[in-house]
Amino acid sequence: MKLLVYGAGVCGSLFAARMHEAGHDVSLLARGERLTALRRNGVQLAEEDGPAVKRVPVPVVEHPDSGYDLITVFIRTHQVDAVLESLAGVQGDVLFLLNWAAGPEALSAVIGHERLLLGFPTTGGTMDGDVVRYRKSNVITRRVAVPIGEPDGRTTPRLERIVEMFRTAGFNAKAEPQMDAWLRTHAAFEVPLGQAVHAAGGPVVLADDPDAVRGMLHLMRQNLAAMETPPVPRAFAALRALPQGLLVAVFRRFLKSPTAVHSGLDAPSPAAAAELRRLAEQLRAPAGGR
Ligand SMILES: NC(=O)C1=CN([C@@H]2O[C@H](COP(=O)(O)OP(=O)(O)OC[C@H]3O[C@@H](n4cnc5c(N)ncnc54)[C@H](OP(=O)(O)O)[C@@H]3O)[C@@H](O)[C@H]2O)C=CC1
Ligand SMILES: CC(C)(CO)C(=O)C(=O)O
User: Fold this and answer.
1) Of all atoms in ligand 2, which is nearest to the CA of residue 260?
2) Separation of CA 196 from chain center
3) Domains along the chain?
4) What is the distance between the alpha carbons of residues 145 and 68, in angstroms, rounded to a whole number?
5) Ligand 2: centre distance to CA 262 (Å)
6) Which of 40, 68, 126, 152 is the right S-S partner for 92, CB 3.0 to 4.6 Å?
């Protein structure tokens, strides 16, 4: 399978490196200074705060080639509009792995319904200069598979092939029949979480402010209540059902955990803030406008 990874930030770089190491025919699309650094050093990976940096010589491109079987897109929500037209002109199925609450139609209208798949990268990390500091797998992240789905929820041969390909590179992937509801549930949770973390100045600072955690939980509950479908995964229903005091305690613990600290939450950037704003707009848009 000839694979293009579009977007050479944290998630795209890590995914491309793992695919290359697993022997797949993969190239990584980058731009600007990131392109220069990748051409010079390959993808540089370090586990959390560890001192060891591994270089993986993934082939890098500035422009898409032709004849891809699959293009995996790891960019931020607000960056999607700018790449859709160029993706429309490149051959291959297109799998978006990102925060997205605007529904599949907004994407398929430009690139074609039959080419589209959606997913979410549950692997996490931060950029440290040119080095990707990825989160070690832990008891929480091992339970959360990378969900990948067809827009209409079917389990197709191509979906099964893609899930299997992710697994060969060590990603715990699974076919998700309700991918749009999964992404909207995640956005309902992620927007208040990300905005509260950014306002506080980091996950650990937020953990020490129970009032702010309560405010964040209140917004998550509002978002979940406004959804047209039950939450996916169903476990998110607990955010509405369990007592506030218990959930505040759980969130304060989570915010100090390696899962939160070694994720994009701990690296506020203009791109992260812009992404949250766009995701909030997508959540607020009425169903018919999506
Ligand atoms: N990091 C994490 O821990 C997690 C992230 N996610 C989600 O996954 C998605 C990807 O996140 P992440 O990898 O962290 O994001 P990053 O900001 O690290 O990476 C995005 C990359 O895409 C590049 N890019 C954007 N537009 C273009 C373009 N038109 N042409 C070429 N390159 C482009 C950016 O380049 P440039 O810098 O030049 O703009 C950047 O290198 C997001 O939705 C995020 O919320 C989900 C779970 C965890
Ligand atoms: C930690 C969290 C909830 C926010 O980025 C996440 O989605 C992840 O890193 O997988």
Assistant:
1) 1
2) 19
3) 2-177 (3.40.50.720), 181-289 (no CATH)
4) 25
5) 9
6) 68
CA 279 to chain centre: 12
65 C-alpha to ligand 2 centroid (Å): 32
Ligand nearest to the CA of 120: 1
Show Cβ contacts of residue 48 under 8 Å, excluding neighbours closer than 6 positions. 133, 134, 135, 136, 258, 262
Instruction: Give the model confidence (pLDDT) of 67-112 as tens digits.
Output: 999 999 999 999 999 999 999 999 999 999 999 999 999 999 999 9
Distance 43 CA to ligand 1 centre (A): 15
Supply the pTM of this predicted model: 0.96
> How far is Cα 8 from Cα 41, in angstroms, rounded to an integer?
13
Residues of the chain with pLDDT under 70: 287-290
Relative orientation angle of helices 270-284 and 179-200, to the nearest 10 degrees: 130
Angstrom distances, CA of residue 66 to CA of 71, 129, 270, 284 = 11, 31, 32, 37
The side-by-side arrangement of strands in the sheet containing 54-56 is 54-56, 43-47, 131-134, 125-128
